[in-house]
Design a protein that fits this description.
binds iron/sulfur cluster, alpha/beta, Rossmann fold, binds 1,3-dihydroxyacetonephosphate, about 40% helix, four-stranded parallel sheet, 14 helices
Length: about 300
């Protein structure tokens, strides 16, 4: 049964002709009132399909809401807590990319969607953890400047013959740094039949423990299609919440129960309600940046079809 505040949010959503988009790392109570829950790529695609709504409440981090704006500049995009930033996205300022381009003028610039709009404006194309290999493989250039996640860069490098140069050298996600092979080994003893699903933002030695390396959306699809029961989940804790909600017959076990993205958790039901009532906090991107960034987002969407 829904809480009173959740009922109020659903009513406000109707009154305002709004849609609530939420990333897989949102809490159960936010997942319950969202119209759409997804990984970064699924959220980008959904953002291209919001034709009939006036207001978009984005329960995710800054770069995700910016991407929704870049794809819908005529719409009002609001984020319930304006401080919900992805620290990794802030590790690659546009200036760093410009410097790297000067050093490697023949390289293509492929940026993870976890970047700010100014950085996206410097990219040839974007990627997410769901399509990174496909995007890199589709380019004619042999050398690829890839950032900001050095672990995703390493994963792509292992799956392509191209030269992948990470920018910056050590960009990373603090949440996915929390996983360790020893924790996973212990869980494998407890659940010997379990399949190990690892997000590519994890360190390489953790990736090596994985039966599958998948984006959060990829994990969900894999579990839906699998006959197995036990899964060890190497990503943020609320991915397990989503898997459990949609697969009550499966047993997803967190690879590390304290892997919490505090930035994602800044959104609460109270703040979602406020964002609907006061239509805040509005996310925008300056027009010239938006136009350049749009090209790299659209190219990704085209190449990942
Ligand atoms: P996904 O696209 O796999 O959901 O990853 C986004 C993210 O921020 C992971 O930390
Ligand atoms: Fe950013 Fe990591 Fe949080 Fe994903 S989990 S939003 S990469 S800090």
């Amino acid at each position: 049964m829904l809480k009173k505040i959740q009922e109020e949010i659903l009513q406000l959503k109707e009154d305002k002709n709004a849609i609530i988009l939420a990333h897989n790392y949102q809490t159960k109570e936010i997942q319950e009132i969202a119209d759409f829950i997804g990984d970064s790529l699924e959220l980008c695609i959904k953002a291209t399909q919001i034709t009939d709504k006036d207001l978009v409440v984005f329960c995710g981090v800054d770069f995700m809401a910016e991407t929704a704006y870049i794809l819908n500049p005529e719409k009002k995009i609001v984020i319930p807590d304006a401080g919900a930033e992805c620290p990794m996205a802030h590790m690659l300022p546009a200036g760093e990319i410009k410097k790297a381009k000067k050093r490697f003028p023949d390289a293509a610039v492929v940026l993870y969607v976890n970047t700010l709009a100014e950085a996206k404006a410097e990219a040839d194309v974007l990627c997410t953890s769901a399509n990174a290999i496909k995007i890199v493989e589709s380019l004619k250039e042999k050398t690829i400047l890839f950032g900001p996640d050095s672990n995703l860069a390493g994963y792509v490098s292992q799956n392509t013959d191209k030269e992948i140069i990470p920018i910056p050298e050590n960009g990373h996600c603090y949440v996915h740094k929390m996983f360790s092979p020893s924790d996973i080994l212990l869980l494998k003893e407890k659940y010997p039949e379990a399949e190990v699903l690892i997000h590519p933002e994890c360190d390489s030695e953790v990736q090596e423990m994985g039966d599958q390396i998948l984006s959060t959306g990829g994990m969900l699809d894999h579990i839906h299609a699998s006959n197995e029961k036990d899964f060890i989940i190497g990503t943020e804790i609320d991915m397990v919440t989503r898997i459990k909600r949609e697969n009550p017959d499966k047993n997803p076990v967190p690879a590390f129960a304290e892997a919490i993205c505090e930035n994602m958790k800044l959104h609460t039901l109270e703040k979602v309600k406020n964002s609907l009532i006061n239509e805040e906090f509005v996310v925008t991107v300056p027009e010239d940046t938006m136009k350049k960034a749009l090209k790299s987002v659209e190219r990704m969407l085209e190449l990942s079809k």
